[in-house]
Design brief:
Elements lengths: L15 H12 L5 E9 L9 E11 L2 E11 L5 H8 L2 H18 L12 E5 L3 E5 L17 H29 L5 H4 L1 H4 L11 H20 L9 H18 L14
Antiparallel strand pairs: 1-2, 2-3, 3-5, 4-5
Helix pairs in contact: 7-8
Pfam families: EcKL
Organism: Rhynchophorus ferrugineus
Protein name: CHK kinase-like domain-containing protein
């Protein structure tokens, strides 16, 4: 079957070579033939830094067919500003996490504890990320208006704790091997600096963040004065602006406490 005829209209965002590579990574061998590829847009989503799809790939294995279901995150096509923001760093960070950091963790014997992330089968910076479809394991997207229960928070924090702990174990074991102190932000500084929530670099990303914050504190808050209790709208807007400014400081590297790789 030719490389072009296996794709439907939506699937043109995936090339034949990329599809072959992700199936190779998924199966672990090359004894297959690509039969059909389809992408279904995901309407319900919790983020704006990508276009999300359900991926279905039908392959022939010897005389049998197998359908592989995965998840795809493409560079956002929403607008040029969002696409530009992703290209400034988030896409590189995702690629670093799946292709470099996880393998670094494995190299120091942490493989048995790395169950806090979806498996990645293809990563191309500023293009596409193909992951396992966690909905097949009954994971669900929680509506944004949902208040987390204690049990929900415990599940989330437990998984994040594994990521943070892996950072510390990795640094300790690498330090023991090297004979000097090894820190992730020294080895991989280009990937671990903050791209989005920062005030040092006067670039497009900073300007986009500022516009978003100003639209909330200078406009949206004043459109809904009825939701504010115990203070004036002006006071609430001032406190909201202070909270946003505090955010810039909280994401910086701590000079007091031990730092860990964090999701963000």
């Amino acid at each position: 079957m030719s490389g072009t005829s296996i794709f439907d209209d939506q699937s043109s965002r995936l090339s034949y070579d990329d599809t072959w590579k992700l199936v190779h990574n998924y199966l672990g061998h090359t004894s297959f033939v690509l039969e059909k590829v389809s992408l279904e847009p995901i309407e319900l989503r919790g983020g704006n830094l990508g276009d999300y799809y359900k991926v279905s790939v039908v392959v022939k294995l010897h005389l049998q067919k197998q359908e592989i279901h995965l998840f795809a995150k493409f560079l956002p096509s929403l607008n040029e500003a969002t696409m530009s923001m992703v290209k400034k760093g988030p896409s590189q960070k995702e690629d670093f996490f799946y292709n470099i950091l996880i393998e670094e963790f494995r190299s120091v014997g942490l493989g048995a504890y790395l169950d806090f992330y979806p498996k990645c089968y293809l990563s191309k910076v500023n293009d596409v990320l193909i992951l396992e479809d966690l909905t097949l394991a009954d994971y669900q997207l929680t509506p944004s208006q949902t208040f987390y229960t204690y049990e929900m928070l415990k599940v989330s924090v437990r998984q994040l704790a594994k990521l943070h702990a892996s950072t510390l174990v990795y640094e300790e074991r690498k330090s023991a091997e090297a004979g000097w102190i090894v820190r992730l932000d020294q080895r991989f500084a280009v990937y671990l600096r903050e791209f989005l929530f920062q005030t040092e670099e006067d670039n497009e990303v900073k300007q986009l963040c500022r516009v978003g914050i100003n639209s909330v504190v200078d406009y949206l808050i004043y459109r809904f004065p009825e939701i504010i209790r115990g203070m004036t709208v002006e006071e609430f807007a001032r406190k909201a602006k202070e909270a946003y400014e505090y955010l810039w400081l909280k994401v910086k590297k701590s000079e007091k406490y031990r730092n860990a790789f964090c999701h963000g």
